[in-house]
Amino acid sequence: MGRSQTGRLALRAAVMAATGGGMSLAYNSSSIFGKERGDAVSVRHKMEAAGWKVPDRASQEAALKGTSRTNPLDMLVIGGGATGCGAALDAATRGLRVGLVEREDFAAGTSSRSTKLVHGGVRYLEKAVFQLDYGQLKLVFHALEERANILENAPHLCNPLPTMTPCYEWWQIPYYWAGFKLYDLVAGRHMLHISRFFSARESLEVFPTLSKGNPEGKSLKGTLVYYDGQMNDSRLNVALACTASLAGASVLNHAEAITLYKDEVTGKVIGARIRNNLTGKEFDVYAKVVVNAAGPFCDEVRKLSDEKALSMIAPSSGVHIVLPDYYSPEAMGLIVPKTKDGRVVFMLPWMGRTVAGTTDSVTPITMLPEPHEEEIQFILDAISDYLCIKVRRTDVLSAWSGIRPLASDPTAKDTASISRDHVVVTDDHGLVTITGGKWTTYRSMAEDAVDAAIQVGKLQPQRGCVTEHLALIGADGFDPSYFTILTQQYVRMKRTHGGKIVPGAFDTAAAKHLVHSYGGMAQRVALIAQMEGLGKRLAHGYPVLEAEVAYCARYEYCESAVDFIARRCRLAFLDTDAAGRALPRVIEILAAEHKWDKWRKKQEVQLAKAFLETFKSSHNAQFDDGKHKVK
Length: 631
What we know:
This protein is an alpha+beta fold. It has three domains: 56-112 and 235-312 and 408-457, FAD/NAD(P)-binding domain (3-Layer(bba) Sandwich); 158-230 and 315-405, 2-Layer Sandwich (D-Amino Acid Oxidase, Chain A, domain 2), CATH 3.30.9.10; 481-614, Helicase, Ruva Protein, domain 3, CATH 1.10.8.870. The protein is 39% helix and 20% strand. Strands 3, 4, 5, 6, 11, 12, 13, 14, 15 and 16 form a ten-stranded mixed sheet that branches. α6 crosses α14. The longest helix has 20 residues, at 134-153. Its cofactor is FAD. It comes from Marchantia polymorpha subsp. ruderalis. Residues 74-443 form the FAD dependent oxidoreductase domain. Its EC number is 1.1.5.3.
């Protein structure tokens, strides 16, 4: 075997190791359960006893309605994003009586609109070194620990991802090499895989679309590759909500807190008036302590407690775009360490497509933020400098904006300090607010919020926090080879346009998609596809099956078409037009599951189309490329 062939095999082995070949601890479910101890094991046994089937929506709402001043919950969480659902899971597994309400859907806001990274923060490490900032260094240490927890607790929804940093100047090689080696060192036993240098030739073998030269005419000298985690953010959030429900929490999406109740004597918050946004009906929920985890909208909730409350959120917009798969290799990301205006842009493979972003700009707070054309163009321009292919606006399959809730402590004297770390504050009326932070540290943020709630409400938990090593729904039974069971033992029964049901093979793409979306629950989805004739794909070119709609309606609190196309599957984020094409069938199946009438079905069509209009794909954007007229 020649030296060049040996080098190529070694190179491919390194890439495979980063994406699963050498990552048994990140994928093997037995390693998760092996780390569970004592109370965490008893919590999991409770979930297993329920057959991993969540209580239905009606029983969840009934449990919330059953509270009173004399029979309150221990804790009511407002907000169903990552932190809110994480807090509900944390509190429920401590043995507390918990409720959670979310006015839209789980992960409807910021938590579904991330860069999809589970990371320690290479940029924060750079700041820690050059600014001698020990606080930034602690953030990196902590985030790397939490990265390991997420990868272990939800292996079906997360995976290690190598990311390449191109070097077009010789000095960049030792500079980035030292930075990534320090990142490895800081990660310690939580390191996913050791960072390494690739020559220019090796780099182009792994990343064929990488440019051989930069705009200044400098040739590629090589690349540095480091490793972080990647996730399916909204499905991870839904898994948190469902696991919290299995642990005993009463979680209710599409339920909005419109008023906070206070004790007439003490002035302390003791509950909330809740409106079911699906029915319009209102009811009261009482709790010993209320936790505000409303993300960018936390100031809105704080003003329900104290109308004079000072704002603590500095909203920042982060825009991402999705491009075809050929923009990046299947198993390698790209980071542009410094754009022309000094920002950082990622380009990462994600669910068979390429996601690129992000921006960072001031924005108003809204439920449906929209990306501006100049932000989309900024990302396209940034990545075009590093690719050898033509970067076209017409290739944008989807584009979305998310609002980061950058937080400042309103009680601090230095109100100018805005942090990407999280803040927990309690107002004079006992309302606990948790905000800021990032997806990777949601678990520890939730732990801090619950600790504060226990102190404020003088609660008596049965045990301490157990979520550090607590597997989420779907982790039980998951294995990388699990998809082979689906391909060998199940058939996709598909209904033709004429109404006839015909068998179809359970192809590898569909099987892998189910396993990496539902983990150990994938067989339940496959069984629906086989037994109920729902094995057809919802959109050409995507492995999402009709059976998933029925499964999510029954077992994942999927209550609307947008819930499904945006957050149970990711069609809206991957390909806006494909989501639109799937919409009629999605609504048809949900209507059968939820017994919708014609008026509700018509409303669902209108709401879903309005939602998709905020995702600026090449077909609905305001731009002029010579073929499309500016709207």
